[in-house]
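User: Run a structure prediction on this.
Assistant: Running it now.
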Amino acid sequence: MTIEDEPKPVSYAERNQKIKNILSDLSRLASFEDLVKSQEEIKSFYDRLKVKYPDFNSHRILHVLIGSMGPSNSKITEDDFPGDDSVENFVNDLARKYINK
């Protein structure tokens, strides 16, 4: 399952829940080796965004990806990152690579 397989979410909360569901599926369905590889990819992707975007920590979608609550004392944006830095696209790619083989 990927986010693309389903109708476009009508809210950021729905999109974020679908990302959580895909990451949960990845944890349950991928082999141990694939799970380790996917976690390494997530870490690398996170590190790249951290360097590229000074406001990286204000994007809720990034906190959904890494499983954190996010900062409570700063302004949070619901927007995804643009283009190749899209968390939604990255998670879809992980699903295709490790779940939908």
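Helices lie at 12-29, 32-52, 60-66, 87-99.
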